[in-house]
User: What shape does this take?
Amino acid sequence: MDAPPEVNQLRTAFRAELERTAGPRDVQDLRDRYLGRKRGRVVALLKTLAGAPPERRRALGQAANALKQEIEAALEARRAAVAEARPPAGAVDVTLPGRAPAPGHRHPLSLIREEIEAIFSAIGFEIVHGPEAEDDYHNFEALNMPAAHPARDMQDTLYLDGAIPPPGGEGRPATLLRTHTSGMQIRYMETHEPPIRIIAPGLVYRRDTPDLTHSPMFQQVEGLLVGETVTMGDLKGTLEHFLRALFDDDTRVAFRPSFFPYTEPSTEVFITCVFCRGGGCAVCKRTGWIEILGAGMVHPAVFEAVGYDAERFTGWAFGVGIDRVAALKYRVDDIRRFYANDLHLLEQFPS
Ligand code: DAH
Assistant: This one.
């Protein structure tokens, strides 16, 4: 004879729950829910017997009691099974999913630096590095910056040795933190003969108060190319190629006359604003252009300082700030954020 439907339902529910028990605690919980004196489901079913019609009472009672015994036995068997399955103390469960180590992320400034290095490597430039603690000669003097030049004013330069240079520059302390990577032009030419094609990436330091666009420490990449027939046209073409590769193919590049002591002529280089594509916006101050780097033809005085024949050789140089490029490319409105180690920013970059 088939068991009454309410008994069958309860059996099905119990079996499903039994399947899901994993430890002794689960088994005990299950027992409470089915056989518990107060709220147990089987006990509740038995209590309904009194109200059942007499002709059903017997069959229902028998079936319910049979289920109760069945559940007792099943719970007992399950308890034994899960107890046995328990690993010995200290055992390692090799089936657990591993804990993946959280990988770090590439720093946005490193990404830009590597991109610039890749662009110039591909067209034959060598990547060179030099000291951040630099001497006055390489940072200023040999770059055609006379002692009284404003760029070497102690306001801009962080001197080492704790010494403060006297006005006029005589008896200046020997060491400083390089204010730009341009000193690498001198260092490289002192030890190499043309033809030269180098870029020199690295940290530079200035006595600046940090704000949205200034940091006392930032990164530059210097470029230098020297040969016998080098022209301003080469500079233009190379920088156009560089800036289009770095930003995008539609980027337009403009050159405006400028002044740097170590180049003649000198130029400031602009690209179409990355925000408004040249239409004019707040970032580019409605001009449609953003200044991106300084460049020019190497000044003959610089060649003389390194013992090159300035009649025979010509060359060009440029310097670009990585922080500024990164701020534009990644739309970061405050360059101080590149040095704050804020994971909200850093985790957005690939690992
Ligand atoms: N040294 C300059 C700066 O720090 C950048 C620069 C301008 C580098 C012109 C150059 C150059 O090589 O030719 O702002």
Remarks:
- The chain has eleven helices and nine strands.
- The mean pLDDT is 91.
